[in-house]
UniProtKB/TrEMBL annotation:
Organism this protein belongs to: Pseudolysinimonas yzui
InterPro entries tied to this protein: Histidine_triad_HIT, HIT-like, HIT-like_sf
Domain of life of the source: Bacteria
Pfam family name, one: DcpS_C
Entry protein name: Histidine triad nucleotide-binding protein
Motif (Histidine triad motif): 98-102
Signal peptide: none
Length: 114
């Protein structure tokens, strides 16, 4: 058994977080180190999928739900204008291997590359 991810520990209540959405399958929280004026994370409560590629292959309905929750949160928190980012792989900066969508909005950060 691998160690539970930080997001599994947040789901379990072992690490505090600021929740912005929750249902049976999906949690939305504020990122602890925001990279934009609005920076939210949306992820499945289950930690079985390390990245969006694995999730898309195994459970496309759950991926669609994550995108729908991201849209709802963007409507609520940043007027429906946002970037949706799934870092996939350590080479591009993924640090938590529990699939999650970054919802970034509220204006452009300085020095944004993509
Ligand atoms: P990644 O680089 O894997 O795509 O993104 C992981 C994200 O999780 C980072 O933006 C990081 O700031 C966020 N993060 C890591 N640990 C915690 C935590 O304990 N609480 C919250 N709210 N966010 C976290």
């Amino acid at each position: 058994m691998s160690e539970p991810s930080v997001f599994e520990r947040i789901v379990a209540g072992e690490i505090p977080s600021t929740k912005v959405f929750e249902n049976e399958r999906v949690l939305g929280i504020r990122d602890i180190a925001p990279q934009a004026p609005v920076h939210l994370l949306v992820f499945p409560k289950s930690g079985e999928y390390p990245n969006v590629s694995a999730l898309a292959a195994a459970d496309p309905a759950l991926l669609a739900e994550i995108v729908a929750v991201a849209q709802q949160l963007a409507d609520e928190h940043c007027g429906g204008q946002y970037r949706l980012v799934f870092n996939t792989g350590s080479d591009v900066g993924q640090t938590v291997f529990h699939v999650h969508a970054h919802v970034l909005g509220g204006g452009l950060p300085e020095g944004r590359m993509a």
